[in-house]
Design brief:
By secondary structure, the chain is an alpha/beta fold. It folds into 2 domains: about 10-270 and about 480-500, Aldehyde Dehydrogenase, Chain A, domain 1 (3-Layer(aba) Sandwich); about 275-470, Aldehyde Dehydrogenase, Chain A, domain 2 (3-Layer(aba) Sandwich), CATH 3.40.309.10. Helix content is about 40%, strand content about 20%. It has helices at about 10-20, 60-75, 85-100, 100-115, 115-140, 175-185, 200-215, 230-235, 250-260, 285-300, 320-330, 350-365, 405, 420-430, 445-455; strands at about 25-30, 30-35, 40-45, 50-55, 145, 155-160, 165-170, 190-195, 220-225, 245, 265-270, 275-280, 310-315, 370-375, 395, 415-420, 435, 435-440, 460, 475-480, 495-504. A 7-stranded mixed sheet has the order 14-15-16-13-12-18-19, with helices on both faces. The protein has a 5-stranded parallel sheet with strand order 9-8-7-10-11, sandwiched between helices. A hairpin with a 5-residue loop joins strand 5 (about 145) and strand 6 (about 155-160). Helix 8 (about 230-235) packs parallel to helix 9 (about 250-260) and helix 10 packs across helix 11. The longest helix is centred in the N-terminal third of the chain and has 22 residues, at about 115-140. The radius of gyration is 23 Å and the shape is globular.
């Protein structure tokens, strides 16, 4: 019987799911609060299409209440004035509670958006815990500066929290991507209003409940689920929000920049889409590892990942071997019940996602790409019909200028482009409006350095993919956004630099 890292079986997780309690209230000013209009919406589980829970739906009035609470907590409350070590202690206590509730939170993520339970427990929650603990420890280790201006003057450069931060996050890594924004904002003394995706609001509310239990003061972290078209716009335009951090589509990211210009010119930090190129050259140090990673990268999280290596750019000398290998590896990712620890790929997050992925596949066929595998809904999910399961899908002979090579599918669909040399590989990889990430497989150190510098991407993985650490920044070039999550550089988004010049 397959077991997860948590030591639970498929039967265990299914039984726990039946007993799971979901949040039923907004979280505003440290208290559970009913939506002003009493509204809610039904969340359908992507694993079987059944009603999972009624999600409380806030409106503009609820968001105003949350922003006012965050404003008071920043302007009058203790959080920004706490010694940094006190913020560290409370955030570490929160992380400990998250760890204690790891099974519950992982199960909630898996049920909400379809992430395989092994990935939810072993990858998502691991990253969440690491993020809150890392930024908690960093809270009392950032130092101000003094500039050498001469004996008669003193110049101080201090970092101050920017104020109230709006955080808008997606559903594909719901707790991780939220933590990448909330943790550094809280560590430096900001307060937060979080608008989670409609597809992952329940886990966002639950983790915030644990923050209150840990002793995070009232108003410091507020969570208001609801329709993004309404609440997102209101948050972006609100004059009492000092900064906004968003992960999501480029279309919505553009709108947030417009909202900033129309309101108070709030700092607006965007982590947007990607169409990452993964280059495999003939001298890859381990071709089997490159093949396995190419398959894992596109089918992990059902391809619902902004950094997914959705364009496999392979040198013609190894193209046949690589393509055959990736097609063979795809068999390991047949979609199934996300509560089964043995399943490597779960469903897409919603029926809307299913429809969008189908459109991309149909267009690729019309454009003349060669379908090697998949292309439709899966019937081998192992759960009741009604789930959003899509087959691992691979296209070869893809034109670098086609829609499949240019547009973000956000599903388990791989576009393979064959190239004749290094220069063509770089041209194809850079032939994109996006610039979030890239992969490169080569044994030649000079090639690795030379091509990495030429690739227009925020992260270049060499002989690996999706590796990283909280000490290194994450973000993109071009339409993939601005600013950086992770690392010390993330603190720059949530602090203001003040110069104090004193004549002695």
């Amino acid at each position: 019987m397959a077991k997860t890292t948590a030591g639970h079986s498929h039967e265990d997780w299914t039984r726990m799911a039946a007993d799971l309690r979901f949040p039923t209230s907004l979280l505003i000013d440290g208290k559970q609060s009913s939506p002003s209009a009493g509204a809610s919406f039904t969340h359908l589980a992507p694993r079987d299409g059944s009603p999972l829970a009624e999600v409380p739906a806030g409106d503009e009035h609820d968001l105003d209440r949350a922003i006012s609470a965050a404003r008071r907590a920043f302007d009058e409350g203790p959080w920004p004035q706490y010694p940094p070590r006190r913020r560290k202690e409370l955030m570490l206590r929160w992380a400990d509670l998250i760890d204690e509730h790891r099974d519950e939170l992982a199960l909630m993520v898996s049920l909400e958006m379809g992430k395989p339970i092994d990935d939810a427990w072993g990858i998502e929650l691991r990253a969440v815990l690491a993020t809150y603990r890392w930024y908690a420890e960093l809270a009392d280790k950032e130092l101000d500066e003094s500039s050498p201006v001469g004996a008669d003057d003193l110049a101080l450069i201090t970092r101050e929290p920017v104020g109230v931060v709006g955080v808008v996050t997606p559903w594909n890594f719901p707790l991780t991507l939220s933590a990448w924004k909330i943790a550094p904002a809280l560590a430096v003394g900001c307060t937060v209003v979080h608008k989670p995706s409609e597809y992952s609001s329940l886990s966002a509310l639950r983790i915030a409940e644990l923050a209150i239990e840990a002793g995070i003061p009232d108003g410091v972290l507020n969570v208001v689920p609801g329709r993004g078209s309404t609440l997102g716009r209101h948050l972006g335009l609100h004059p009492r929000v000092d900064a906004l951090a968003f992960t999501g589509s480029t279309t919505v990211g553009r709108a947030y920049l417009e909202y900033s210009a129309q309101s108070n010119l709030k700092r607006t930090w965007l982590e947007l889409g990607g169409k990452s190129g993964n280059i495999i050259l003939p001298d890859a140090p381990d071709l089997d590892a490159a093949i396995a990673t190419a398959a894992w990268g596109i089918f992990f999280n059902a391809g619902q990942m902004c950094t997914a290596p959705s364009r496999l750019i392979v040198h013609q000398d190894v193209a046949d071997e690589v393509i055959a290998g990736v097609v063979a590896r795809a068999a390991e990712y047949q979609p199934g019940d996300p509560l089964d620890p043995a399943v490597g790929m779960g469903p897409l997050a919603s029926s809307a996602r299913m429809a969008d992925v189908r459109e991309h596949v149909e267009r690729a066929l019309q454009d003349g790409a060669e379908l090697l595998l998949g292309g439709g809904a899966s019937e081998t999910s192992g759960v009741a019909t009604g789930g959003c399961f899509f087959e691992p899908t691979i296209f070869a002979g893809v034109s670098p200028d086609s829609a499949l090579a240019q547009q973000e599918v956000f599903g388990p669909v791989l576009a393979i482009v064959t190239v004749k040399d290094d220069d063509e590989a770089v041209r194809v990889a850079n032939n994109s409006d996006y610039g979030l990430a890239a992969g490169l497989w080569t044994s030649n150190l000079s090639t690795a350095h030379r091509l990495s510098r030429r690739l227009k991407a925020g992260t270049v993985w060499v002989n690996c993919y999706e590796e990283g650490d909280l000490t290194v920044p994450f973000g993109g070039y071009k339409l993939s956004g601005n600013g950086r999550d992770k690392s010390r550089h993330a603190l720059e988004k949530y602090t203001e630099l003040k110069t104090t010049f004193i004549h002695l």
